[in-house]
Amino acid sequence: MSGIYRDIAPLRDSGSETEDDRGPVASARVPITVIEPEGYARGGIVVLHESREFADALLELMGSLSSEGWIVVAPNLFHRNGATDKVFGDDLFADFDACFDWLTARGVFGDCIGVLGFDSAGTAAFLVATSRPIGAAVSVAAPGIAEPLTDRADALIRAAPRLQAPWLGLYGDDDFGTPAAQVEHLRDAAASAVVATLLVSYPGLHHRPDRPGFDSSDSEDAETLMAAQTRIFDWFDSHLR
């Protein structure tokens, strides 16, 4: 079924609800938003996002990915009772696995599944790539480089050598949340992984295809945005085969 719609993805090995030391916390199904391409799908991309709502720019990017032949699946990472805006640890991996299984049940091969995330969800996408041998991963403006964002997440510099999927990282030189010196250290750490990695820094802050906010009359801003989006598309084209 082409177009955009909502569905549910069952969690692995769970009953009607999951439970941890805080008690019952979630339904055993992850609500997902899906955009399917017309005709044959050549793979799938799981889009992690840090907001409870979809910004128009993010929906536009997801639609563009779908038009390139990818099934795009975005899980609601905040479906658990009391969930915060940063979902990491076992909850994150369980939700990603549910999306992965949903895609493979529709005939998508595991090595043709990628993950994409922005901000803290970009950190989440990176950590998924350190624990799941998927086809490719992309993180945009992912913080938590030198110090972990939460006690349920590792610092990216420490986790980088464990990357199991080709990883692309996009950063802005003027982003106070990701200091340039830390980004350079992450570049070096990622280079020690056994998979292909590429970290690209852009001038300013206009490297965010999910949240443009740039002056369309400024050709440099427009070029940066287009360059960043093109790198994302090319990374998935190159590695999801």
From TrEMBL:
One of its GO terms (molecular function) is hydrolase activity. Residues 35-239 form the Dienelactone hydrolase domain. It comes from the Bacteria. Residues 1-24 are annotated as: Disordered. It holds the Pfam family DLH. InterPro entries: AB_hydrolase_fold, Dienelactn_hydro, Dienelactone_hydrolase-like. This is Carboxymethylenebutenolidase. It comes from Nocardia mexicana.
